Amino acid sequence: MRNELIGLGLIITLSMVANSLFASNHCLNASPLPEPTGYIVMVSNAQQLHDAIDNLQANTTVLIQPGDYVLNKTLYIQENNITLRGNSNYCDQVNLIGQGMEQANYGNVPHGIWTNASNLTVQNLTIRDVYFHPIQFDANADSPTLYNLRLLDAGEQFVKGSSGGGLGTGVDNGVVEYTIMAYSVSPPNTDHGGGGTGYTNGIDIHGGDGWQIRHNLFKNFHTPDGSDHLWNPAILMWNGSSNTLTENNVFIDVDRAIAYGLTNRASGNDHYGGIIRNNMIYTTPGIYSSTRRANSDAMIIVWDSPQTQVLHNSILTNLNQRFSIEFRFDTTGGQVRNNLSDADIGDRNGATYSQSGNLSSANPNMFINPTSGDLHLKHTATDAIDQVAPPADAMRDFDHELRPPGNNADIGADEFSLSYDLIFKDGFEN
Fold it and tell me: pLDDT digit string (tens) for 233-265?
């Protein structure tokens, strides 16, 4: 028997790791950070926070005490090596609050944080209710780090990396980890100046190289029928972006989950390279109308993104999408391997790729708790268990467990663990 139990302590530890991304109203299971060092400015109210930002020096940590901070202007960061950190190990104890995602009279708070400087780090806090972007990066604001955040109810993109004006020029080497991006109900119903209603994304990066996006939760990025923008990817890497790694994320009720590339470039590529692996994607049955479904493409799209690998993802569309994964335009050298889904893999406009080990006959009974986005396998999912050889670039699963523990690996994001299955069966969910 695989993964035999070796003690209750191990069982609980594995359960905590596996269950780290399935509670959108609370924080994710991010590891506590070490104590800050260097020059530290402590603030405990909104005015002190604004004063600290107005008088920033490079290499400063602004340590924000727990509480609600109603912003009276955007936090403009124009010095390098700045850290904004909530003085808590949780994401929900420090709340930076805008004027409202539907409040066109937003005053001096169009965004939560805006920066043109490099090495900005934002940790352990919430940004919510802003009219445009909770976090806005100008081009060349390289090497930002976002960790253990909640970004809620934004009017447009939650994390926006702007282009420098040319294909492939933007913000490089960003890291986004253990962050919730969600709408409490749904995206705004008004035109915020993005060419119509429904103009939103979770992460939208133009021309960025080397981003790593892992262990995050994206929820309720579903615009209603009749919106001008119907197919917003929760993660959109395009306009000459390259070498993105998107792994171990959960997506619930999003119109598209991940897009590497979006348009067909006459020269160059909209995206190049990168890996999409070990993600779990779920949509509620009936969330799309039949007309919406007929015009859909896929939850993961690789469009004009050659040399991209799509490995070991679990996708349960519940008939809301025509395809689970779609390749389009120039995808030379693309690979799609060992993905578990309930919809086929599609291609069009001359896309080419190699594929193996994919299973498109998944159903909800194969998974632990699909309605919460938890697509860990049950022991009864025999069609997926011990079926494939893992590729060299996906030797660990959603929970960072090695695959395979036996002769063959499992299809999808999860390598089945008996201990995980039993801990839920025995009632240790909380």
Answer: 999 999 999 999 999 999 999 999 999 999 999
Task: Give the percent of the chain with pLDDT over 90.
Answer: 87
For the domain covering 8-425, report its CATH number.
2.160.20.10
Helix (H, G, I), strand (E, B) or coil at 335: strand
Question: What are the Cα distances from residue 68, in Å, to 127, 179, 252?
Answer: 10, 19, 28
Each as own residue / partner, the long-range contacts of residues 137-140 (CB below 8 Å, 24 or more positions apart, any chain) are 137/161, 137/162, 137/171, 137/174, 138/114, 138/162, 138/171, 139/163, 139/164, 139/165, 139/169, 139/170, 139/171, 139/206, 139/207, 140/116, 140/164, 140/169, 140/170, 140/171
What's the Cα-to-Cα distance from 396 to each of 206, 338, 403, rounded to whole Å? Answer: 29, 13, 5
CA distance 386 to 173: 36
Nearest one of 74, 96, 97 to 86, comparing CA atoms:
96
Distance from C-alpha of 405 to C-alpha of 408, rounded to nearest angstrom: 8
pTM above 0.90, yes or no: yes
Instruction: Give the pairing type, strands 374-377 and 367-369.
Output: antiparallel
d(CA 218, CA 176): 12
Structure-token pair, residue 155? 């009017």
What are the tens digits of pLDDT across the range 261-287?
Answer: 999 999 999 999 999 999 999 999 999
Taking residue 428's Cβ as centre, other Cβ atoms within 10 Å add up to 14
Ramachandran region, residue 62 (left: φ > 0; alpha: ψ -120 to 50; beta: rest): beta
Instruction: Spell out the domain ranges in the chain.
Output: 8-425
Among candidate residues 354, 353, 286, 295, the one with its CA nearest the CA of residue 320: 286
List, in sequence order, every residue forming a beta bridge with 64; answer none if it has no partner: 43, 86
**Collapsed DSSP state (helix, strand, coil) of residue 69:** strand
What is the average pLDDT value for the chain, to the nearest integer? Answer: 92
Do residues 283 and 316 make contact, with C-beta atoms less than 8 angstroms apart?
yes
Distance set, CA 24 to CA 117, 151, 200, 373, 398 (Å):
31, 11, 19, 10, 18
